[in-house]
Amino acid sequence: MKMAMAAKPFNLFRWFSLVSLVIILAVAILLGSAATRFLMRESIDRDAMLSAQFIKSIADVEVIHGNFSPGLSLSEFLDKRVDGARLGVSHEQLVKSHEEFFDHIVRLPDVLLASVYAPDGMVIWSTRPELVGRHASSDSRLKEAIHSRSTVTVDRHGGERPVERYFLQAPKGLYLESFIPLQDSRGEVLSVIEIYKEPVDLIARMNRGLVLLWTATALGGAVIYLSLFWFVRHASRLVEDQQRKLVENETLALLGEMSTAVAHSLRNPLASIRSSAELALEVDPGPLHKNLGDIITQVDRMSKWVRELLMSARPLSGDQEPVDLTAALEETLAAYEPQIRHAGIEVDWQSRQVPKVVSHPVLLQQLLGSVLSNAIEAMPRGGRLAICLEPDVRRRLLTLTVSDTGSGMSPAMLEMAFKPFHTTKRGGLGVGLVLVRKIIERFGGDVSIDSRENAGTNVHLTFRATAGG
Question: What range(s) does the Histidine kinase domain occupy (predicted)?
């Protein structure tokens, strides 16, 4: 029979990290690409507009400089096929205006090739004389400029078109092709200026702008992703911690019910066994005396387990109040003084005045007793027990550190330290540290342990200090 494989739990944090990264990358690339196209298009259109305004200004200046009749425009007689006499313009004026206007066109910065077209598509002038007389009536951009009566500009890249062999110099990369229509006083397009240019300064500024744009896009995407990543990781850890606590509470509740049932079931039989053993000791002090003493000792140990089980199972009771931690600690040390002396343990403890802590006297004594008992039992052949109090006035906390030089714990043992009924001590029940954490968290404190094998253990108990000190 095949066992059904358990479905893997859905890892929200991992999937969110991957999906959000893909989405943010896609959005950043789309926004960056859209901004890049907009930046390039606006820069190119701006450069073409300035070139068109400059050329039209030159044409207007030539009309004024040539003292032509009012209402005439240079576009009406750029075509050498036009009879100047019909327009009231002498041949000398035409030749001079042509030469000066075309000389200005040639001297435009970054020009690779310049040509002038008549409305029928014939080249009437060019920086390359061999192009004069050719027709380009099939050029869609030329037709668009004539019909729309506005400048038409496209961006090209070197090596794309055969016309590049006529350029004054080979383009290094991006260059612009602009068709600039010149109109007469009635608005009719009578000539079109075609200019190929490689605006080096504009291209350099565009490249700097693109680098800045993509850098900002990358940084913005990274900041958004890292912010979401931190937020979701924090939320995921909180959810995992809450789930862990929920499982632990459910486990403790179930174990508590079982422990209570077992403890109550054992209490009366144990009391009867102990009473019978004590009675037997009084009646028969003979050879069974030692065996009866062992029975009483083991019954007492089991009774102690029963008390610990009942205490770990039931809710903690007792209102919080200010408690003198130093006095409670000295009282607990005095209670364990025989065990400390018997094990040959050196105690390093200096009493000092510290603020009172928020706790309960009885529960605090139980907490301190459990911690000190563990430390003493970890050093059966002697050692050093160090106790230190460190107040944190700003945060209103008080940390008690209990350190021993015993055998210490491995990482695996340290991870299981607060698990119920987990113990490495012979005869231990495994509820001591569970109760310690339960008590200290009951009053808003915290407990942590750091330990290394054969190097000892440090237990850090953090209490809330009272406002009055």
Answer: 261-467
Two structure tokens written together for 253: 């509740």
In tens, the pLDDT along 386-431 reads 999 888 888 888 899 999 988 888 787 777 676 665 565 654 545 5
Lowest mean pLDDT among 6-15, 152-161, 166-175: 6-15
The rounded distance, in Å, linking the Cα atoms of 337 and 384 is: 14
CB 373 within 8 A of CB 308: no
Task: Give pLDDT tens digits for 151-168.
Answer: 898 888 877 678 888 888
| CA distance to 169, 288, 313, per residue, from 173 (Å) | 12, 109, 81
Neighbours of 126 (CB within 10 A): 20
DSSP secondary structure code for residue 343 in this structure: H
| Residue partners of 181: CB distance under 8 A and separation at least 6 | 145, 146, 149, 150, 151, 189, 191, 192, 193
> Among residues 201, 195, 168, which one has the least CA distance to residue 105?
195
**Average pLDDT of span 28-45:** 87
